[in-house]
Each structure stands twice: as C-alpha cells, then as structure tokens.
Amino acid sequence: MNNNSIILGDGLGEIIPLSEGAFTIDKTKIFIPFDQKTDDLYQRPIGSLLVEVQPFCLKTEKDIILIDAGLGFSKDNQLQIHTNLLANGINPNSVTKVLMSHLHKDHAGGVSKRDNRGNYSLAFSNATYYVQKKEFAFAMETGFPSFMSEEIGVLENNLQVQWLDGDGTIEGFIKHEITGGHSPFHQVFWIEVGNHTLFFGADDAPQLQQMKSKFVAKYDFDGKKCMELRQKWWKEGQDNKWIFLFYHDIKTPVYSF
Q1: Nearest of 187, 214, 205, 216 to residue 243 by alpha carbon
Q2: Predicted TM-score (pTM) above 0.90
Q3: pLDDT at 3
C-alpha cells in the first residue's frame, strides 16, 4: 500500500490519488508546471490561475478503475499517469475501466499515448473507456485550446469505448449523471464499493473548499448550476456518508464524513 492510498474500512477497496502536481493556466489555456515551494504566482502572466491535477485509481476485488486520465504529460517516453500507477505497484495494462467525466485536456490528456512516429493509441490497452458520446462530439467540434483532438480522436470507432447516452449505471455499481455544469455534457459518478459510496464530481466539485463556500465561477459553462449542485451534493454527502474525491485538490484529495 502506498502511503497516500486510502483503504476502505471493510477492505473491499483502495483509493489511490495520482497527483500530477500543480500548474498555472492563463488565457492561452496552456498548463505550466508550478512548484508551490519556490515559484511565485505573481511572476506568472496576469490572470493566471493555480490548478492542481489529480486523477484517481480505485482498486476493488474485481476492477482497477481509473477516474479521469490527467494531463498526458510524458517524461523519458513514459506517460506521467503510467509512471504514477507503476509507483503504486499497478501495471497500466491491468486497468479495467477508465471513467471520463469530460474531455478537457487536463482530464483527458492521458487517454492516449503517442509513439515515436507521432501516432496515437489508447493508453490503457485492456480497459473499457466510458465516455459520453455527446461530450466527444462537442469536444471534437470545439477543438483547441480546450480540447486536444489528436489525443482524444483515438476514441472514435474504437471497440474499447463504451459510449454513454445520458444518465445510467455501469455494471450495477457505478452511477453516472450528466450535469451540464462545468461543461455542456460534463458527467459525475457515484461508485458503490461494499457499504461505501464514492462520489466524483470532477470539475463541478473540484475542491473541498469549494464545497463549503457559495460562489459562481466564470470558467464554468453554467456557474450557477455548479454552485447549486455543490450545495446539494454536500448536504446529501453528509446525510449519506459519501466519500468525496477531489480532482483539483492535492491537499485534500479524499474527504469523508
């Protein structure tokens, strides 16, 4: 067990945050690595936002589930998300499911990998990818800079992809729901593991602090709806003892009541 992992109380699952670090992003929508110990936010371009990136791996008795796929950065010809999985004793080829909340590049960069000839293939060769088909169509139509068409284009007509059409469940234990909050076809997940309910709100509910405050973010497709959903989920989470997974919160990746 990695020191950063969380074993669920009944031993039926393990949550592993896969932090990729902190970055700044400005109007160019380019992610620039940011060392919180040595870098100064005020030295970055005006309007820069500090963003932390953190996919999750969930190990259960039957599955190894990746929840969103990170930025897709590589070092020494290896995807960072592969490096992070290996550091936690997980072979990327053992991932069985990849759940995608949406396809913005900071969540979907690790969907695929590029070879030396510039060709892309899916990064998890034995996994089923779960993607909203309207989200994919929107992403491919919209393109750069929010979406990287060449990285996500490999999903199209791929037998490893299960296209989702609206709300539903996956194999009876994963519930997915389109919110249209952060982006038009953004979806969130509830995953049942034993007696536990894990909730992943992705960019509708990205940080612990945002769950506790009331504000409308300008970067959301429907900021008011996001605010209302955060309040609703926070109350439901308290009442039902959910475990929250926060994609953009390295300090508090997992929170439970």
Answers
A1: 205
A2: yes
A3: 47
